[in-house]
Amino acid sequence: MSDEKTIICRCEEVSLKTINDTVYQYSCSSREVKLRTRAGMGYCGGRTCRHVIDTIVADLNQKVITDDIQLSYRPPVRPITFGALGGVYHENESC
Amino acid sequence: MLNLLIIGAGPAGLKAAIAAAEQGLNVKVIDEFPKVGGRLLGQLHQEPNGEWWNGMEMGEKLHQKAIRAGVDIQCEVSVVDISQSVSGWTVYTSQGMIEARKLLLATGATETPIPIPGWTLPGVMSIGAAQVMGNVHRVKPGNTCVIIGANVLSMAIANELRLCGIKVKEIVLPAVGPISKDAGIPEKVLASLMKLTHLAPTVILRQAGKLGKFINPSFAIKYFPRRGIKLFGIPIRLKTAAVEIMGEDHVTGVQTVTISSDGKVIPGSEKVTEADFVCIAGGLAPMSELASIVGCSFKYVQELGGHVPVHNERMQTNVPNLFVAGNITGVESAKVAMAQGKVAGLAIASEWKGKRQEIELALTTAMEEVRKTRAEALIQFQPGISEARDTVYHQFTLDELRMKQEVSVS
């Protein structure tokens, strides 16, 4: 399977190859992979790929996944309009 | 201010709402989906006794019961943030702010993808998405499909898609690798399917399951036909792996290879199966985002699907006035989620009313019901659930002790 053609983070278009290379070069955590590659930092906030990133990085580092959550969640946990964030709500303007 | 706000109108959230409202609490339930019922909405399968489990009907029953109990339910509301104040919780949503004294997170689970080349093409979806399109929205996702990933969820949904009039061409494994792990190794997949004897979809699998008690799966897989076995007319090909999803601007098919029992590719076995949509069944993981932003501590338990907020058997977390129920506490069947919801609702009511004896009694019965439901569960997503749960409860006790010590030291 071509690692270059395997997209892990769809929002930021980060490939498996980029993640592999980053871990090999910096022998780093999934958090560092996120900061270096932007994987998990896109529009969806890592909702789609965070488990995959954790799995790949744990596997490459030959470590078990820890009890602490590596890729932290930060509010807003859903994409939201500035209007809704500021307290203005309209019909048909779901977040 | 509400007595209780429940996030998630699925089996756990609705059951909790009913239990708490029946004890006189003022309860509101919110959900981001347009319909009440959560993942109950998609479920339709036949049980071993021949009865059909119709999740949509069950969801509607719970919905009506909740309304009769005086519960306020609002759909299409997404929670974006939560903060805690001295008087309780402030929940920020896409539709404004909600305040409540007690909070129950019943947000369920989320699907994990298995990325392979081409999975970002239009026409590729998670198995759960195909289920929602077919069973909830009554829209056929396509006419022909290939399912990547052979597990209890994909088998059940394959049959639902068939009932929708879709031709499911085959169920294959994802290629072996760091993401698919055991899900890409035929021997391991067969071992996990063999544990589902009572659910085992065909006579062949059922036989394999019975034999499995005596025969090692690594032996049984050798005799598993390369062409696969059929379940409701759908070929399950445990020795075929998907390596790429084909298509320019939409899915046209899946490129597969034949693999050995341990997942190694057999050279020259490439083949393309045409399909107009592809489902990826990568399994489920508890949806922990809200528990994380309110400061719950977590435990990683593989049998439960990933990180679960630490809680006790009363569904209480180590954050005061915060409870959890359903698949956020570990991936299990809807029946277990319902039983857990009742426990959470009663535990919250009990705390509210100063642990009155009759509620505590009902709570004890409800906790017993969870254990019973789990033991009888037809869909065991993973083996060793009960033992795994004990480790979470144990962690709760440890955390509680540690917090008490910290308080007494300071």
Automatic annotation (TrEMBL), chain A:
InterPro entries in the record: BFD-like_2Fe2S-bd_dom, BFD-like_2Fe2S-bd_dom_sf
One of the Pfam families matching this protein, by short name: Fer2_BFD
Originating species: Psychrobacillus soli
Identification of the protein by name: (2Fe-2S)-binding protein
Record domain BFD-like [2Fe-2S]-binding: where: 7-58
TrEMBL record, chain B:
All residue ranges annotated as the FAD/NAD(P)-binding domain in the record: 3-341
Pfam families: Pyr_redox_2 (PF07992)
InterPro entries: FAD/NAD-bd_sf, FAD/NAD-binding_dom, Metab_Enz_Cyan_OpOx_G3PDH
A GO term for molecular function: oxidoreductase activity
Keywords associated with the record: Oxidoreductase
Record field: transmembrane: none
Xref: Gene3D superfamilies: FAD/NAD(P)-binding domain (3.50.50.60)
Lineage top rank: taxon: Bacteria
Protein name per UniProt: FAD-binding protein
Species whose genome carries this gene: Psychrobacillus soli
